Amino acid sequence: MNFRPGLNIILATRTDSGDDGERRSRNGAGKSSAIDLIHFLLGGKPEGALAAPELAEWNFTLELDVGPERIEVTRSVANSKQVSISSPTSGVDRIQNAQWCKRLGQEWFGLGEKRGNGDVSYRQLVTYFARRKRDGGLDSPTRTFRSQSAAVTETSLAHLFGLDAELVRHLHQAKAALKQTKNAQKALAALDSAAAEGAKRADLEAQLEAQIASVKLGRDRLAERIEAFNVLPAFRELERELAKLNHDFRDLSDSDVIDQEAIDVNARTLEAEVFTDAPDIARLFDEARIIFPDLVTDRYEEVRRFHEKLLENRQSHLRNEIAAAQERITNRQPLRERIEERRRNITRSLRASGPADELLRLRDELAGRESELKQLEGRLQEARKLEDRVESLEREVEEAVRALRQDRRERSMIIDTASRTFSEISERLYEKPGQLAISATDTGLRFLPQTPADGSAGVMSMEVFCFDLTLAALAKGRGEGPGFIIHDSHLFEPVDGRQFARALQIAADFSETTGIQYVTLLNSDEIDRAERESGVSFEDYVLETTLSDTSDGGLFGIRFD
Do the Cβ atoms of 210 and 192 come closer than 8 Å? Predict the structure, then answer.
């Protein structure tokens, strides 16, 4: 397959029926595989059809301009770690694929030694000149991979547009380090799940300081208790004696209560035991005395004396009961005082002393407090380091943003050229210019291409088209870039025929004015549609080599399905 200067169109044709009479598809003819093959020869991994076992031993060769000379590179999947380089000046040489990538990076993009994580890589840059749908390269003008991070995107585009990629890298490195440090702060704070809810409202350093103060107080109190602790061998016996004394004292108190209640009841009864004449009975006796004067008078007096005697006996009994109860209470008092005195002595001894196992338990508890305190102090030191690191990184991010904005202002000519080039290309597509804004903010260096919104499904495709041509033109202006752009039919599928034809005409004019080869791999009916709707013929740009859906007409001459 030979490419010419300017626009190169590789067609994939489709036969109405194959040898077996079935309708064939041009999928598998080799359009995407051609891009995979070029990437492979430019240092990439064997992907797509190249991973098929049938091609493992095949040698693939690409002739290309690298620097001032034209060289041939040959590589096989079976030995993909090495490439064979043939040039008129140095002959044939076999080098590692990594060396090949490094050479291409130097010659095409002026890359030197890697400056650290996040630096511009040759393989990332070259993907902007040969996007693949499988990677998500057609989903966005600024990204060539679905999982491409903002840092990689912005650093790569800054380099390709001629801006200071190192400033962008520095900003994203500082932001990544800041995010990592803040995550470490959260992880450190999460270690203390037992922190009081109110303390969690404070910053981590304040939380830890408060906890340390609390633990120190507990440790000091515990240390003082251990210092004053006396081991009492008979501690357990005293504890049991104290328990018995408490029981006896409660029994005495219960007995006193019972006796006091007896005293109160008997005293109230004694007060109620008073002899009173019954008027009705006396009147009855008076009336009876009229009928039985002698007999009735004598019996009433006897009853009265008997009753008075009975009352005296009753009162005497109650007084005796009260006196007995008072005596029992009084007799218990000495025993109560002895028990109380003994309880005070035992309690005093127990408070000032303790058993040996209690002392060991206190010492273990103290060791636990010391260990907890040491851990908290270690966390506090780490928290202070992290806080200092966060403050330093925040200042670094602010300074990086300021430097990025300053660099953007100083390179306003590049920005203007990029925006103008994008507008000119999009104007030819839509008859009114689109816009490419390059913004330096605290989030990074943003590239924001926008074509006139006409509601067509192919807006994103045409933004990719305009963006790639702009990017290639700027790189070419600085003497950088591989010197080609490759787009396959997937880019143009959602675009209507007239706009598709305009894009091909723009690509042809662009290639002629810039000297950049524009290679596109299309289906034959698509080019027919473009020519029919635009009235423009692209026959002169179609390469002699074509791909087809026949069994031997694909890129590799064999089919893998």
Answer: no
